[in-house]
Specification:
The chain has 99 residues and is an all-alpha fold. It has 3 helices and no strands. The chain has a domain of 60 residues. The chain is 43% helix and 0% strand.
Amino acid sequence: TFSRNNHPSTKPFSSVVVPSVDFPATLGNKKSELSGVGSSIVPKSNETVWGNKFSSVSRQLKGRYSWADDSLIEDIMAAVDGDFYKASSFLEAMVCSEN
């Protein structure tokens, strides 16, 4: 899509990347636990825990995959519900697909 000034609009990386067919589903049955309309996909009771976990895992991933920018790591973390191993596998697959 194009914005008003005929320049392509920016989209988050996660809206462009589609995981491979064998990549595990991330949300499963968690939809029933989610908070109401207009909120994030994080259950309200876990927002603080999620923020701390997200920061810690993001730092670990950035240390291991220094080529990945912060927005890529954030998008992948959101897609895998903050799971370090899934995010790491996803980033590793991106490296392997380039070789």
